[in-house]
Amino acid sequence: MSQKHHYTGLTDAEVLESRKKNGVNILTPPEKDPLWKRFLEKFGDPLIIILMIAGALSIGISCYEFWGLGQGAGVFFEPIGIFIAILLATGLAFIFELKADKEFALLNQVNDDEPVQVIRNGNAMQIAKKDVVVGDIVILNTGEEVPADGELLEAVMLNIDESTLTGEPICHKTTDPAEFDKDATFPSNHAMRGTKIMEGHGVMRVLAVGDKTENGRVFEAAQIDDSVKTPLNEQLDGLGDLITKISYGFAAAIIVGRIVMYFINVPEFEWVSFLAYFLQTLMVAVTLVVVAVPEGLPMAVTLSLAYSMRRMLKTNNLVRKMHACETMGATTVICTDKTGTLTQNQMQVADEKFFGNPSDDVLIEGIAVNSTAQLDLSGDKPQVLGNPTEGALLLWLRKRGVNYLDVKDKAQRIEELPFSTERKYMATVVKSASGKTILYVKGAPEIIFGMCKNTAGVTKQEIDAQLLAYQNQAMRTLGFAYQELSDGDKTIENSKVVAENLTFLGIVAISDPVRSDVPFAVKEVIDAGIKVKIVTGDTPGTAKEIGRQIGLWNDATDGDRNIITGTEFAELSDKQLKERVGDLKIIARARPMDKKRLVEALQANNEVVAVTGDGTNDAPALKTAHVGLSMGDGTSVAKEASDITIIDNSFSSIGRAVMWGRSLFQNIQRFILFQMTVNVAACFIVLFGAFMGMQSPLTVTQMLWVNLIMDTFAAMALASLPPSKTVMKEKPRSREAFIINNPMWKSIIGVGGVFFLLLLGLLYYFEHTDITCLTEVGKVAMGANTGLSGYELSLFFTIFVFLQFWNMFNARAFETGRSAFHFKGCGGFGLIALVILLGQVLIVSVGGEFFNVEPLKFIDWVIIIGSTSLVLWIGEFIRLFKK
């Protein structure tokens, strides 16, 4: 690279001194909690806490039974089972998040060893990016990433992509104060770490490295954990509180009621008998608390989230944090950037207007030779090196089967005038493949048109009108002209084109087109009741046009209140912003921290906010949002701050994530409906049994089978239900709404109440008869209370389980508007239902003393399965009637 000055740079001693004083050029990675601490965090779940309390109480009772009453070691099955449930739920959540972290680490590898050209000790040399220090003289070339913040000493046709910091793809850089852009986010003579040299070359002196760079400051802001509580956490907190109050209320009712009954029924008070009776009462109360707590619920939530995590990866959503699966379903606002998410992030020729029927040879050669851009064809998709607008022209040629390099090689370049912001055009003189000498000029259309003698009959007014139409569509424009030169013709003098016989060829309009799937995807999320807001570094005109194209901006209804610039946004007080933020659709010329402030203002209005971003500037907002969505080709800083990485960079993948989240919440509701119905029936049996003097018909191990193993399988079955597109027709659920809605309450209390009355009646009948087969029901006369035989207990346990088994099918069909027999895409559900059925048969057949059961006759199995299936048939009839 040619240099205007001879730079000596730092000496070795100065490098060491600078590194000691200003630090190294590495962004300090976020400090990760050790694995043991991350595992312990899983125990903060409200339902896990309730389970641990129930487990502690259960240990106390088991110890008393074992040492105080001399019972066998089997009394410890209950607390062991509870703590197994806790470890399974917490362990699964921990393992799945750890697995996602490993996948993410592969996606997000950062290379601090990339070579950088610097001048030290008077010599040009290459060093690793991490070794750059403040004061270093760095040589910048096209295609390279700027390694640190610095002040430019030289800038030749230098254009830098600052989209990772500002969202602005091309910023012209210069050392000439007359050309400084006063509206630029960063000074025109500064280059910032993490930005990319798109065109030209330069030399800079490093001013800041590592954490002290602008990139580093944004990265640091992204590490601040605002600890925003997710909607699911809030819902489960509420459910945990409800279960705690109800179970403790039931336990208190048992203690008070039984003590009152003791004083009513016992004529003489004795401390010894009272204490024994009181301890027995406490044991009944603790049993009820254990029965009331849904041991399977934490597992169900974990399995549902884990299943969704794996399935969402197939829809290009790499979920890093489990809660994000469900939180996407509660989202009310999506704040998105423009470039790369809504648009393709590749400039393309959108339209061309050529006049006077110029030959293809002239057009093709003029574009190929009069360009500084290159195409990198080494990958699957061509990548533009250099100016993206010029690159769009080369891509346009490629689409037409023209290899620009072949055209370039056949023409001999004689003279070149590089582009400058002052002239607004560039020119090249070549010895053409046709043998003629030709001058090609390209630049701002209005200037190129004004230089031409031959305009093919086109007027200035027509050109101006066409340019205005393109500008209104947020397109960039280039004009083209040429002249076949004869000996003595003027071409370029004093850095200007002075040719006198130029012919105007026409105009090309270039844009970063909206992704083809985005308008539909935006409509889908808006129809789902989610507001979309664009935050971009582009001009208000460009942002509005993109808004129009994706269906967000409507000129008839939207006005100044719906759009704001970064400068105006910064001037708003927090109170003013809170009042106006709901109306805003577009923030143009946004600065790095504007998006974070926008997210905080929306959260203050109780919105659930998802943010998309691919640049370092997006990281603070990604971290602050309820769900941060980074792009697969985004910066490592953005991906590190996010909860979900959209691998294909597409907005339509965000719509799919919302659908998954909403469907997931419904699946969790279905499991709660299923398990709470079980618990209501079981709790009332324990409660009434305590007052009626009945022995407990369900043993601890049987309840653990129902509450832990069977419910875990049910959780897997309900979690595996595929997402439904119908959820996208609903509005986002209210954050204040309880996870158990009115239809669920009616079903839990109604169905649970019917199960309780049915089971209580059955219990009473079994106690007053001696049944050895269900065919005897109605034939054996009722007599005195003879207690429950082992066979009767097995019958009762099996009937209880199959009532819940068939109710699982009803829970599966809850709020789907479909039959419980609709198995399309739900093959896993049928398989798991079969496993539960076979498991129950196995337990009763060989469970023996451990489960306190006896094998049943074949006819009893047939009668139980057939009669309890009425639960499903009645549910089907109700669903049919509702249609």
Topology, pairings included?
Blueprint: H1 12-22, H2 35-41, H3 46-68, H4 77-107, E1 115-120, E2 123-128, E3 137-140, E4 149-161, E5 171-173, E6 190-191, E7 196-208, H5 214-221, H6 231-265, H7 271-292, H8 296-313, E8 317-319, H9 323-330, E9 333-336, E10 348-354, H10 360-369, E11 374-376, E12 383-385, H11 388-399, H12 404-410, E13 412-417, E14 425-431, E15 437-443, H13 445-451, H14 460-472, E16 476-485, E17 492-493, E18 496-497, E19 503-511, H15 518-527, E20 531-535, H16 540-549, E21 563-565, H17 566-571, H18 574-580, E22 586-588, H19 594-604, E23 609-613, H20 619-624, E24 627-631, H21 636-641, E25 644-646, H22 651-692, H23 700-719, H24 742-767, H25 790-812, H26 827-846, H27 848-851, H28 858-868, H29 870-882
Parallel strand pairs: 9-20, 9-23, 20-22, 21-22, 23-24, 24-25
Antiparallel strand pairs: 1-2, 1-3, 3-7, 4-5, 4-6, 4-7, 8-25, 10-19, 11-12, 13-14, 14-15, 15-16, 16-19, 17-18
Helix pairs in contact: 3-4, 3-7, 4-8, 4-23, 6-7, 6-22, 7-22, 8-22, 8-23, 9-22, 10-12, 13-14, 15-22, 22-23, 22-24, 22-25, 23-25, 23-26, 24-25, 25-26, 25-28, 25-29
